[in-house]
């Protein structure tokens, strides 16, 4: 079930978008499931207009897919689509790490250190796998430190799809620990302002994540099948 929202919100479309995105990430709206404006509007207690606009925004992020006159459905990804997505992600995030090494501020470095320390404590306590909420994501923090509005805009839908793929794949504790070690190495290169090393390490990190996600045990049934 979707949570009802306050229809008096000053930014109703954004609130509706967040509610639908949350339901998709929590898999309350199943992969490939049809999304109709009328049903979503009734569940959220709003009119169809903000739902329509929210679905368009989510389509831009890659979390829903247009079915033409039949409306929208929750996104599905084939193996080839995931591989292509990670190739693009490797290039963009490698560039982000390079630019961050050249442009990052001291307070942003401190924020990245705190972020990784928190993830390490979470792993040690076994409360979760150490993957943080979207707002504190290590990769997004590096992208922001790159100070490139164009890169920011390009990476926004990539980060949204990545969150969805993570939720669906179910990361292992071993991979989370490995990722944290890789994050520490990337941060070390950025701290030393070594742009070449930061880019190389980030690219290697993304390739490792790609290999783990595309391993046979990680993909859902729909992801194993070729897209129509």
Structure, described:
The chain is mostly helical. The chain has two domains: 12-74, Arc Repressor Mutant, subunit A (Orthogonal Bundle), CATH 1.10.10.10; 79-222, GntR ligand-binding domain-like (Four Helix Bundle (Hemerythrin (Met), subunit A)), CATH 1.20.120.530. It contains ten helices and three strands. The chain has helices at residues 12-25, 37-44, 48-61, 79-103, 106-125, 138-145, 149-169, 173-191, 195-213, 221-224, and strands at residues 34-35, 64-66, 72-74. The chain has a three-stranded antiparallel sheet. It is elongated. The protein starts with 11 loop residues before the first helix and ends with a helix. Residues 132-136 and 221-228 have low confidence and may be disordered.
Question: Nutshell version of this structure?
Answer:
The chain is mainly alpha-helical. It has helices spanning about 10-25, 35-45, 50-60, 80-105, 105-125, 140-145, 150-170, 175-190, 195-215, 220-225, and strands at about 35, 65, 70-75. The protein has 10 helices and 3 strands.
Overall number of strands: 3
Sheet with the most strands: spatial strand order: 1-3-2
Point out poorly predicted stretches. Answer: 132-136, 221-228
The domain count comes to: 2
CATH topology of the largest domain: Four Helix Bundle (Hemerythrin (Met), subunit A)
Mean pLDDT: 85
CATH architecture of the largest domain: Up-down Bundle
The total count of helices amounts to 10
